[in-house]
Amino acid sequence: MNIKILTPEYVVFEGEVNSVLLPGKNGEFHIMKNHAGIVSSLIGGKVKLYVNSVNEIYAKRFTKENEKDSVFSYQIKSGVVEFNHNKGIILCE
Q: Which segments of the protein form a coiled coil according to its record (predicted)?
């Protein structure tokens, strides 16, 4: 599935991921391939991408969660996510 993460200043990430874990108002939620369409607000926390690798262009903005799994995180203050037809966009600050 394709995910794009945007801030007002720059594109944080754009590419294929296996899944994404997001900080929602009612707790974290996981979006996986073929997930139902969703629009949700996000609170401060970590956006975690489950991906084989992150392109060099974007890697400097991410923290690798551990060496064993390919989980990369990006800290946000707030935002909104829209996901439909295996394409998602996360607008955040």
A: none
